[in-house]
Write a structure and sequence with these properties.
It contains 16 helices and ten strands. It is α+β, with helices and mostly antiparallel strands and 413 residues long.
Length: 413
Amino acid sequence: MSYEFFIGMRYTRAKRRSDFISFVSLVSVICIALGMTVLITVLSVMNGFQREIRTRILGVASHVQLSGEGGTLADWQGVATQAARHEQVVATAPFVSAQGLLTHGSAVRGAIVRGVLPEHEDRVADIGRHMKSGRLENLKPGEYGVVLGVDLARALGVAPGEKVVLVAPQGQVTPAGVVPRLRQLTVVGVFEVDHQEFDSSLALLALEDAQRIFRFGDAVSGVRLKLKDLFQSRLVARELARTLGPDIYGSDWTMQHANLLRAVQIEKRMMFFVVFLIILVAAINIVSSLVMVVTDKQADIAILRTLGAAPSSIMKIFIIQGTVIGIVGTSLGLIGGISLALNVETVVPFIETLFGFKFFAKDVYLISDVPSEVQSPDVVLTAVFSFVVSLLATIYPSWRAAKVNPAEALRYE
């Protein structure tokens, strides 16, 4: 063990002449630990939000969507067959997409109406696994059944077995003029995917019924694809668009929901920088603590210099002392941050129950619960940043200690 390390560790444990110096050192450790805990927890929660939003979006949306010119696709069977040959494609499903109004009594709500083949839709989406009542297979051609999102059904005040009226945007020409096209539908199921956008606006019909109502004939809006690796969606969309010809357009989930996913990523970066300021405060505390230690130990430094200690050795002593503070704070922060991040789904409901409020109301936010996902790169990056900042904070006080003049320091001793 070098004498620099021995003395540095001794100074770390030694009682100060002023209790205030020890208090500042303790505050430095607490600030680093608190900053690490908050930073790891915040990043884990943001990771959880990304995961939940991605999962819930892809539970209803598709990995890749192929459509034709003008929003219609005539030979969808041929397109689906060719797309299925791609090594990344797991399943395909045709769909008809349109907008309309749903009415029940005095309640009127706008809706995104999607015509689907239930047996195909179950392969590319998870709606069938999130049915609160009824089944997706209840959508049978010619029976004009409809499956509604839970919030949409609640807003209309309907339950399975009741009737709603669909107002199609395509008008019907009559001798009296253009009148809206109406169709009565029977509610055969209600789903809940825990995503406000879909639960409050999506209505599913049998594909043939949607084709008749919206006058698609035998055409569809496009074909939805499910991939083995969802992160290959952009590449697969481009490859299929080139393979299938110039009249076929490919889009993927990252393009369809780009603003939402980008917003979450930007928020994560901003939260990182904002919370990292706590660690910077801790670094400032380390500087002030070591400066006061240097002042307190000037006589010791002078004696070491007269015994032959080099200025670089004096620097090492105080760098070691500050590094120990950084290591202890970082270690405590890692333990606290990972523990809190892994248990945030238990801690948050307890706080909500204790104070009688909810952090994320479902009618305001896309996700009503607080998810968390601890990712190793975030933990490692946070620990490295914290340690590096703590280490840099020791440079000035250590340099100042190395500049102490032995004669001046011992003049009044």
